[in-house]
């Protein structure tokens, strides 16, 4: 399927889509209800220590100690204002981030391709997919042409997954090569898929549901402050009881005795503690904001300081999220890069450092540019005559050019089976060594005709999603602080182990599971 073509028989009519939308609801993940301002304000007075201060203020008014009442009341108001402003800003920032993205989807309605809001996609819709799209819902492919999808949002796997509608009839249990999922990104190719699930019924929705069921208990700081508040309350009651007994024994006037015991209770309350804690937390929020971290609730700042284990994703968090050529094997490394770069469908802009197409091919073009190879001149000198796109069955791609050479790249075994002049055992050994280091290995070869037989091996490329430059230092600092960092990923164990060793996460063999 090279183009959109005529799909008039696919998809829904506008009336059908409207009826299904009314039945199934909008295609959006359920989010926690926004806190109204009145609730946000009341939450600032929920701490037991603050409740104790409110009681102290009331007692001060009853006792006629207006100066004391005003002082404690001012502390309460300032404390509440600081917390309210910080949390309101965080909620507003998160809401603004959500509104920045208004996802769209291309569907077939009334026999025509239409661009619609992703929230209006319904089960039964025919989704048209092409490079750069974000999949709007879970769907089953009915057509696909060289379709590759990045599913890192679901699996953590940095390499794109090749999708095919042909695998629908033959797929094994647990395999999803014939399905696309909400939130994943189309890297290259085209596809037509019928929506099977939307909103919370999608795989992404199930993950969101699991997160919703996780109970949010009090933070360690809130637990400690509650304990302090209860302790002070009991201490005040004990003191009042002791003083009351002594005063009764000394035959103090009842009114004077009540005033005296209540005054002692008020004096036992540390009026400044909530304000000091709130100001300290607010300063922590400001410091984290300077490092581009958004804190919704003030007590979370202290919770971060109590962390003993950090569980982190790999792709895009510990790594850059972009494939890079990490190793080249062959007698002429420049020739390996040039041959591989002339066998790509991707595009790369050296000025921005960004590209479009398959991430592996973008990495090859970037490596060729960094090696000083002028790919624009090389491609112009040998225009493309024909090509065979990558296919999951043969696991290779080839481009025949006007210079009479066939440029081929693919899985190492798929290419070696077509080569005739190489020490295959030596090449396999080199490939195995690269694979054990967590690299994705591609073999590169040349032929003298459009046929892919009788190829000459040029070399091997090892690619990987490299660690972020600052990640190793961050992990080292975490260990020094007594925090245990744990990497969780859906990548192949050898890839995960290689990245973990490079980052200093793995100190012994038993650290990998």
Quick synopsis:
The protein is an alpha+beta fold and 513 residues long. The chain has helices spanning 14-24, 37-43, 48-63, 66-100, 152-155, 203-213, 220-249, 254-267, 273-290, 299-305, 333-341, 359-370, 375-381, 412-416, 424-436, 471-480, 493-503; strands at residues 104-109, 112-117, 126-130, 138-150, 161-163, 179-180, 185-197, 309-313, 324-329, 347-349, 354-356, 384-391, 396-401, 406-411, 440-447, 456-464, 484-488. It folds into 4 domains: 14-25 and 121-204, Calcium-transporting ATPase, cytoplasmic transduction domain A, CATH 2.70.150; 37-98 and 217-306, Calcium-transporting ATPase, transmembrane domain, CATH 1.20.1110; 311-318 and 468-511, no CATH class; 324-462, 3-Layer(aba) Sandwich (Calcium-transporting ATPase, cytoplasmic domain N), CATH 3.40.1110.10.
Q: CATH homologous superfamily of the largest domain - what is it?
A: Calcium-transporting ATPase, transmembrane domain
Helix content: 40-55%
SS summary, helix count: 17
Report the top-level CATH class of the largest domain.
Mainly Alpha
Which class of secondary structure composition applies to the elements? alpha+beta
Number of strands: 17
Strand content: 15-25%
